[in-house]
Amino acid sequence: MTIEVRVPQLPESVADATLVSWHKKPGEAVARDENLVDLETDKVVLEVPAPAAGVLSAIKVTDGTTVTSGQLLALLEESAAATIGAASTSATTGPAAAASTAPAPGLGRAATGGTADAAAGAAAGEGTVKLSPAAKRVAEENKVDAKSLIGLATDGRVSKADVVNFLAAKDAPASTVPPAARVGSAPAAAAAPSVTAPPASARESAVPLAKAPAPVPTARMRGTRAEQRVPMTRLRARIAERMVQAQATQALLTSFNEVDLKAVNDLRARYKDVFEKQHGVKLGFMSFFTKACVEALKRFPAVNASVEGNDIVYHEYFDIGVAVSTDRGLIVPVLRDADLLSFAEIEKSIGNFAQRARAGTITLEELTGGTFSITNGGVFGSLMSTPIVNAPQSAILGMHKVQDRPVAVDGEVRVRPMMYIALTYDHRIIDGREAVQFLVTVKQCLEDPARMVLNV
Q1: What CATH code would you report for 2-102?
Q2: In sequence order, what are the residues at sequence separation of 6 or more whose Cβ sits closer than 8 angstroms to the Cβ of residue 141?
Q3: Which residues are paired to 413 by β-bridges?
Q4: CB distance 142 to 171 below 8 Å
Q5: Pairing with 228, which of 50, 165, 184, 318 sits 20 to 30 Å away (CA)?
Q6: Banded pLDDT at 212 (limits 50, 70, 90)
């Protein structure tokens, strides 16, 4: 029985998707619910599972094609005809299809360029290492055996950067060979510039000989100067569009303050073991900052508002977006009703978001909405920055690196763990006074966390 594999129903906010890569080829057997193909939308990568066990008989859409909801992707022969389907596909497609499962005897590397070996290696490594779509594309272009990438995976997934670094390390030994030995196939001695020995009379002369000019470095000696032109992923293009849109449509301004995190550090040190034992998650900074921002948003509603046409929409709920960095780009999953969440619930949610975002399994609904955002550049070492608002929101808080600095405390100079914080806001609806007081409120809540408990 032939089963049609179609694009699943996309959310209302997503018009189409791009087919990134197929995980199966025509004639290959598939298991029920096994991922057949990856579809990339503006926000996430969607997996299309096999509706039944069988053999993939035909692929109707190639990689890189833009698809819409319900569009036919492939045909699948159900398991009852799996063996017959596989045999008939091999018979009708000829040696090319047979080579994809078992290379013909005598078909060596010289004839195939290593592609058969690479395909076999990818099939063997498929069960132990998972490549992101970009990583898979780079690996296939450079004929990298998937088995050689085992051990590079982070959070169970090999990123494009992992493959690029692997290729760079693989090529590194060539740079240790003397330049002369690497020029064509000529012997090293022939490639090196020679200086004819002067006659005896010249050697005995009091006039010193001029030194031979140093050879001009070749391109090989200077290093590679290659260029690559890679189209933006849908997510990167969407990020670029939203960032430019925010700067073009909003009157963005940034205010700064600094926070002494000694009180937060003391609380974390005092309760970290009990907290982790009771809740099964570590007590980090993000729960403190989320709670502090909620308190500040309650006092300054304009920071939690958005602009729609000539109207200001004041949101009476607190959906806090938390920026998460992935190998595909920055995404912002949303903590719904953050004011109702406990510290443990916030930490668990953020940890779950980060793990699933990097694995590509986060849902579109979790990335939709949000009334205010927090981004933490400090995890990468940033000391100060001006974040860009995630439109249609009107403000975003930027966290930065915690750094010990000397500060004046009660008339004395002391070393404290300090962090610069930044609030970028839409000046059309948020006045400078409100922005500054918002940051002061966040500062007060973090420097005296009891305020968040007592609501003072």
Answers
A1: 2.40.50.100
A2: none
A3: 408
A4: no
A5: 184
A6: low
Q: Which residues 6+ apart lie within 8 Å of 119 measured at CB?
A: 100
- Per-residue confidence at 221, pLDDT binned at 50, 70, 90? low
What's the token pair of residue 256? Answer: 């700064």
- Per-domain boundaries in the chain: 2-102, 126-181, 235-454
CA 281 to mean position of chain CA atoms: 24
Rounded-to-integer distance, Cα 387 and Cα 437, Å: 18
Instruction: Point out the residues that are catalytic.
Output: 427, 431
Query: The domain 235-454 is classified under which CATH number: 3.30.559.10, 3.30.360.10, 3.40.50.300, 3.30.1330.40?
Result: 3.30.559.10
The tens digit of pLDDT for each residue in 292-345 reads 999 999 999 999 999 999 999 999 999 999 998 887 778 899 999 999 999 999
Q: CA neighbours within 13 Å on the CB side: how many for 374?
A: 27
Residue appearing with tokens 């290093």: 223
CA–CA distance, 354 with 323 (Å, rounded to integer): 9
Residue 107 has pLDDT above 80, yes or no: no
* Amino acid present at 344: A
